[in-house]
Give the backbone structure.
Amino acid sequence: MATELSRTQGHTAHQRRRTWRTPMYTLTNYLFILPFLILFATFVAGPIFYSFWISLHDWKILAREQPFIGLANYINLMRDGIWWIALRNSLYFAFLTSIINTIFALVVAMLVNAPIRGRDFFRFVFYAPVVLSVAAMGIIMSWMMNTQFGIINYFLVWFGLPPVRWLADPNLVIPSLSLATVWWGFGFPMVIYLAGLQGIPDHLYEAARIDGANTWQTIRYITIPLMMPSIFFVFVTQLIAHFQVFGQPYIMTGGGGPGRSSYTVIIYLYQTAWRYFLMGYGAAIAVALALVILFFTLIQFRIFGRRSVIEY
Amino acid sequence: MNRMRLWVVGMLIVALVIGACAPPPSQPPPVEAPAAEAPAVEEAAPTEPTPTATPIVAEAGAGATRLIYWNGLTGSDGVTMVEMVQKFTEENPDVSVRVEMMPWGTYFDKLLTSLVSGSPPDLFLLHEFEIPQFAGQGVLADMSDYYDDHGGPVPVSDIYPRVLEALELDGARYGVPLDIHGWGLWYNKDLFVEAGLDPETCPATAEEFVAAAKKLTKDVNGKRADEEGFDPTQVEQWGTAVSWQKPTTLSTMWQFGGDWSDRAGNATLTSDAVKKAVQFWYDLIYVEHVAPPPAGFDTWQTMAAGKLGMLPEGSWFLNFANDNEINWGVCPFPKIGDEHVTWISSHVIYTPPTLAGEKLEAAKRLISFLTEQGALWATSGQPPARISQFESLTPDRYLSAIVLGTSFQEIGRYDFAHPCIQQVIDQGYMPEFDAIYNNLKTVEQGLADANARVQDILDRCR
């Protein structure tokens, strides 16, 4: 009986090994993943490891020889004041934008998930900016936020308020870039949230209403807990994406100004590698940024990953 | 413990993969070069009342030998360049040319990628100060044989000697020059008249320049900067502006006898001469209140709106001024320091070392032809590099090119063409100048930081 159970309900370690080693079984599985594996190895894994290899060299793109210099690029990077400025700006932008986007998109998703008139229209309107390229968005927003000729300041002055130096004030420039990015990109997390909200069973809300819960209590004790996987996914992906901010400061603040107030890591990487041909140092910047992203991703997994799964 | 290690390694791989795969909200876009780059030049005949759009790609001719020509002339000067190429293909029907114009920032990326991949354009345009950077990578051809002293068609005796010198490196001569462009002072004659200034006389010294700027600066109540009751917090019309910080600051620091390096591997941005130069422009903004903080201030549009009296700007400003019907005057960059100097540069046409056969022969003909068209090129305001062409310009049609071109001959200075020049500009001193002029750092602190950064770049570039 015991033997029968083990055969039908699961695999013993011995059986797992035997199945795993069955040639046909293994070959079939490998064939299924082979196309992806080839593309992944060629375009993702290969370049990642090659970048690390490049970062260990004084790699100048057109030079005949690329001398191996070990960790010298990383040591120089740690002493490089521009790297720390760029990293600080990237962190500030990434956290500010990700937090605002995560919260704002959730609020909007809840609003457009409600049975209101013109719901589909609002969903369309809120998602529409996502399809813009960063160049189009950047040019539009830099004109709107122009201190002298921008339409936002025009209306501020019209209401008797002083004009704001959105992109010219070093203290305001990153929040301004963040604002523009949220307008541009909150539609995507909104769609993810909508999918999550539509997956919450109605009977939970009905039960809450029967128990006398008000709207806030419903959100607090049903919606938000059940949306935590979506919120976690949105926040992690937003943070990773916004760490790599490039186009907005490149277009809207002339590459990181005023001074270096909006100079980011990817602008530094881009200039180092593609303007000055210093691929080794550029690769070191890329690897260092990947490690920083990894660090913050691990922290998020630690914080959010401890939450128990809610089943319904 | 092993599980923990596996978990960490797994997470490392996952994060690296996510980082690589995640769609960044900001792919490198095709945009204008950063502020440190030369502004796009512009063009169209001075008599034209409306601006002419520059095509991104233009096809000229239908000949069997096809040349690809890249440049960064996205302003209206691109129109003139296409016109010149079309003239060439009419006279050389066996050649067709595809002219591709893109913003300088994008242009450098594309050019480098094409050179690395072994498929560069047949001709491309750069500046003379970029020669060591590109030639050092082995991607520029020695073009000595384009000149008549090596059996080519371009007469050496007709090119300004200083331009030729700027093209020479390690015994080779790189490229063929189109022009000598540079930095001058443009002003609005209507605003001069309104301020009681003589519209036919330029401020030539620091004192005259500051005095004129004060008269041209006006607050919302109509009070000028040299009048009692002027409100510097509500300026409606500015006397001047720092404009593009690189040539303005370089010209001024050279006038005081300073430079960004001693040309022997040492940064010299903390010298008294450089401090005096930067302090002069800083004071115009924060002491005299006759120039705005640069961040967020659009000098060209403000000039077009008639709210800026004097603008330090390049010879390429001509067509913007004409297109926007500014009643402009132009004069040499004023003498602010002890010696009268202004920044100059040159557009130079290059071919890659891989070009050969029929294409090389056609490229030589095209380059030779383009250098013959200096007078047409000068309609964009850019003074020709050829002596005979410059001397043939007439004031009725080429006033700005003559005024500025003469000053470039007399007081012009090329920047030091260091192999890491672009890095020195973009990452060394420009962000620090910007921080100073936007009052984020004191003059001393900003220059100390700039000096340290430039020194670091020079050390690593050796």
